[in-house]
């Protein structure tokens, strides 16, 4: 009996140990918890050159000769120091990975190189960049839409980096104060539906940067910057539109003869789910998009994952808010249904899986709402009900109004919406057709605005992603590389 017990225990231990080992047939991109990422990257690296799409020297070479240094608990690059970085490492097929970055592998790898480690680095959950290890002395750094070839020049970082790390928290706090920027997404009514735009608004100690704009939706994620596109399907003989999202550094497949853009981008589109519906974007976050799906007279709310925008599977309330959140949703819905029945509305669907919900802006905050669709005299109608729940952090990362809504309305009576920076230094106040940028004083808006922008009639804010400190410069450069242009001076009235 004892021998059998020992045999079972040994088998159990072997099963556990085998589960911890890396499977030799693992697919490219598998995330592996690194035992010591600093030991892999640690030391001092020098930028040898900037690579272009041909894999050769190109660009402005502004980073040529710069240092990238890694010490326990700190990273330095471009004159900035980040403390307490975190890492994710994945094993990828080198040739395939480089092609997604527009870099041909020829001339970079030897013929025997197949798989390499790509280490993604974060600071305070913010994406800094990716490092592809070539060997012990060489690697490629993907940062700010740049591709830098690095060579290791020392096994240890400079001692000053270690000393700086002792006060890194104070240094980082100082670097954040008074420097803020925001990527603002707009939905604009048009004759054929809606168009979308991204604005970049930044200020350094109340000195406004040039306001940048793009006619696409450009937003940050932990994997870098992404673009969300709204494609009209009428050119393909269909009705409605299609939403697709992609990392801006990933190569778009080239069109083949007779192939549409949608077909070429099949890897970002789930085939067979392009039903004839108009999709109107209400909110864009790091990982989720809230939309209104309009089809056959029925307007439903949907929450979709950014990675699978055209998937037929919708996010449910319980997926984001758990069972307690779903019960609160059902309770609020029952009250709204009872109110409709008192008005004589009886054609209401009782089977509710918790998929008909989304986000709206109300008094300077994002609010969760559910929707009920019903028929009234043969006509489809809908009513929304508010959920008395705070949106979770994985849905909305920052939604703080550092000034009370009443103080903002007292200063700007026709204000419809407002946004304030995490640094409490600037505020954006939206009225019917204007966006005014204010400095923030002592718990109130400054007397004199920094600038005022005209907005198209009916424009709605669907995204506000804030960056502070060193991220402002990084985000601004990335947005410019993406193709953003400064707004004309006559459309931004400086004060």
Radius of gyration: 26 Å
- Helical stretch tally: 9
Share of β-strand residues? 35-45%
Main sheet record? 10 strands, antiparallel
Distance between the termini: 88 Å
Q: If strands are numbered along the chain, what order do they take across the biggest sheet?
A: 1-6-7-8-9-10-2-3-4-5
* Count of domains: 2
What coarse outline follows from CA principal-axis ratios?
A: globular
Say how many strands there are. 30
Relative helix content: 10-25%
Low-confidence stretches: 1-35, 164-175, 255-273
Mean pLDDT: 79
Note the main attributes of this structure.
disordered N terminus, globular, 9 helices, 6-stranded antiparallel beta sheet, 30 strands, 495 residues, alpha+beta, signal, Lipoprotein, 10-stranded antiparallel beta sheet, 2 domains
Write up what this structure looks like:
- The protein is α+β, with helices and mostly antiparallel strands and 495 residues long.
- The chain has 2 domains: 26-168, no CATH class; 179-254 and 277-494, no CATH class.
- The chain is 20% helix and 40% strand.
- The protein has 9 helices and 30 strands.
- It has helices spanning 2-20, 37-41, 94-100, 159-166, 168-176, 261-264, 317-342, 405-411, 470-482; strands at 30-32, 43-50, 67-71, 74-77, 80-83, 85-93, 115-123, 126-133, 138-143, 146-154, 179-190, 193-204, 207-208, 212-214, 217-221, 224-232, 241-247, 278-284, 288-295, 298-305, 357-362, 365-376, 379-386, 417-420, 426-430, 434-439, 451-454, 460-468, 485-486, 492-494.
- The strands form 6 sheets. It has a 10-stranded antiparallel β-sheet. Strands 11, 12, 13, 14, 28 and 29 form a 6-stranded antiparallel β-sheet that branches. Strands 24-25-26-27-30 form a 5-stranded antiparallel β-sheet, with no helix packed on it.
- The relative contact order is 0.11.
- The model is unreliable at 1-35, 164-175 and 255-273 (pLDDT under 50).
- Residues 260-272 have a biased composition (Acidic residues).
- Keywords: Signal.
């Amino acid at each position: 009996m004892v021998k059998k017990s020992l045999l079972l225990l040994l088998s159990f231990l072997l099963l556990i140990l085998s589960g911890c080992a890396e499977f030799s047939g693992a697919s490219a991109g598998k995330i592996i918890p690194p035992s010591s990422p600093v030991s892999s990257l640690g030391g001092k690296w020098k930028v040898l050159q900037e690579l272009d799409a041909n894999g050769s020297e190109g660009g402005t070479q502004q980073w040529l000769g710069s240092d990238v240094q890694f010490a326990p608990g700190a990273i330095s690059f471009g004159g900035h120091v980040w403390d307490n970085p975190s890492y994710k490492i994945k094993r990828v097929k080198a040739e395939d990975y480089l092609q997604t970055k527009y870099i041909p592998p020829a001339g970079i790898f030897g013929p025997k190189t197949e798989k390499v480690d790509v280490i993604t680095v974060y600071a305070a959950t913010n994406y800094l960049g990716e490092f592809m290890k070539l060997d012990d002395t060489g690697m490629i750094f993907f940062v700010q839409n740049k591709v830098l070839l690095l060579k290791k020049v020392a096994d240890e970082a400079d001692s000053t980096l270690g000393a700086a790390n002792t006060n890194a928290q104070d240094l980082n706090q100082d670097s954040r104060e008074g420097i803020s920027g925001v990527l603002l997404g707009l939905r604009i009514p048009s004759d054929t539906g809606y168009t979308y735009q991204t604005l970049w608004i930044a200020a350094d100690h109340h000195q406004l940067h040039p306001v940048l704009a793009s006619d696409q939706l450009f937003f940050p994620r932990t994997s870098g910057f992404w673009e969300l596109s709204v494609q009209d399907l009428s050119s393909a003989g269909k009705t409605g539109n299609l939403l697709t999202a992609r990392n801006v550094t990933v190569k778009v497949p080239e069109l083949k003869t007779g192939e549409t853009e949608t077909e070429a981008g099949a890897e970002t589109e789930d085939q067979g789910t392009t039903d004839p519906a108009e999709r109107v974007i209400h909110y864009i976050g790091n990982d989720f998009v809230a939309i209104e799906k309009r089809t056959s007279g029925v307007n439903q709310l949907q929450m979709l994952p950014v990675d699978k925008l055209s998937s037929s599977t919708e996010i449910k309330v319980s997926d984001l808010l758990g069972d307690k959140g779903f019960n609160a949703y059902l309770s609020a819905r029952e009250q709204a249904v009872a109110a409709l029945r008192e008005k004589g509305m009886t054609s209401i669907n009782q089977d509710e899986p918790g998929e008909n919900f989304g986000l709206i802006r109300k008094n300077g905050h994002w609010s969760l709402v559910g929707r009920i669709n019903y028929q009234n005299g043969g006509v489809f109608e809908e009513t929304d009900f508010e959920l008395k729940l705070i949106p979770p952090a994985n849905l909305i990362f920052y939604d703080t109004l550092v000034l009370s809504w009443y103080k903002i309305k007292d200063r700007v009576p026709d204000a419809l919406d407002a946004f304030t920076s995490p640094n409490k230094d600037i505020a954006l106040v939206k009225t019917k057709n204007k966006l005014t940028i204010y400095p923030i004083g002592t718990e109130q808006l400054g007397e004199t605005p920094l600038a005022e922008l005209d907005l198209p009639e009916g424009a709605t804010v669907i995204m506000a992603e804030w960056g502070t400190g060193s991220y402002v410069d990084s985000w601004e450069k990335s947005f410019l590389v993406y193709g953003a242009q400064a707004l004309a001076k006559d459309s931004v009235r400086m004060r």
